[in-house]
Write a structure and sequence with these properties.
Elements lengths: L1 H28 L6 H10 L7 H21 L4 H6 L2 H15 L12 H4 L5 H12 L1 H11 L2 H22 L2 H5 L4 H20 L7 H11 L1 H21 L6 H30 L4 H4 L7
Helix pairs in contact: 1-3, 3-7, 7-8, 8-11, 9-11, 13-14
Length: about 290
């Protein structure tokens, strides 16, 4: 657990400092004030770059893992069943907060605490552990629920729910946010879809689709950290060529170019580290493949 915590905490700290430096440089360039206390708070809540709060949440789950494993192994216990409800109950609580207390510090964009607390993402961690310990059972469930038709249905429901929330409440942070029942339903179906594909292609290692996905998976941790930095320049590029106002093209280009350049960056750093014989340093910046 300590080794896993280090693999998470050290890259998280280094990249937090990196993104903090970029933010400070931008504020100084624009004549803004620097609030060190705000940066310290953002470090502990994963707010120094958009996705970093996932690591803060994951660190909590790593600490809890020794307690969770015995529950997962005892599949017939009441606690095993009740833990499946932890995230849905938490999301229901957040939906109620969005409905009645949308302007509270806990719910605003500045209050990232709602997404940092481990119950928010526990379901996916718990699902992954169950897939690991009961592969045959989840292979069957993935084949049943992870079909393309179910995934398309989940996407349609997610779009309808977002439109209804935006239309009825005018709260676009809630409508477009990840943390909603339909959003999590779609994410779970997507996970089962990928598990189903994994088993479908398990004996087809020569398949180009499988090789590409596996390689992206090997680079995923490094992609997670560097993609926000690359996205800064891609957005500036899209703005310079006048695509910012054409949201669908802007999204497609930002997504594809950021993904491609992020994978390329991780591979280039790995090649350079190999030539310089400093491969061990890759672990501390999160660029070690297949961690």
């Amino acid at each position: 657990m300590l080794e896993t915590g280090g693999v998470l905490l050290i890259p998280y700290t280094l990249w937090s400092l990196f993104y903090a430096a970029i933010s400070i440089a931008q504020k100084l360039h624009n004549g803004g004030n620097i609030n060190i206390e705000a940066y310290v708070v953002k470090y502990f809540t994963g707010g120094l770059a958009t996705p970093l709060y996932y690591i803060v949440c994951l660190l909590q789950l790593v600490i809890l893992t020794p307690l969770i494993i015995p529950v997962v192994k005892n599949r017939k216990s009441l606690l095993h069943k009740l833990l499946w409800l932890l995230t849905p109950i938490y999301v229901l609580f957040l939906d109620i907060m969005y409905l009645f207390f949308p302007d509270s510090a806990f719910m605003t964009d500045q209050g990232t605490l709602k997404a940092v607390l481990f119950p928010c993402w526990f379901l996916f961690y718990y699902l992954g552990m169950n897939v690991r310990y009961y592969p045959d059972l989840w292979k069957q469930r993935a084949r049943k629920y992870g079909r393309s038709g179910n995934l398309i249905t989940a996407i349609i429901l997610e779009i309808i729910a977002s439109e209804m929330i935006a239309f009825k409440t005018g709260n676009y942070d809630w409508a477009t946010g990840q943390i909603r029942f339909c959003g999590f339903f779609y994410a779970v179906i997507c996970c089962l879809f990928l598990v189903n594909k994994h088993y479908s292609y398990a004996n087809k290692s020569a398949n180009i689709f499988v090789r590409v996905l596996r390689h992206i998976g090997d680079c995923a941790y490094g992609i997670f950290y560097i993609h926000c930095f690359i996205l800064i320049f891609i957005r500036k590029f899209c703005s310079a060529i006048g695509l910012s106002d054409i949201w669908i093209l802007n999204f497609i280009i930002c997504f594809l170019m950021t993904a491609l350049l992020s994978v390329l960056a991780v591979n280039i750093v790995n090649v350079l580290a190999g030539k310089l014989r400093i491969e061990k340093a890759l672990k501390w910046i999160g660029f070690e493949r297949s961690i």
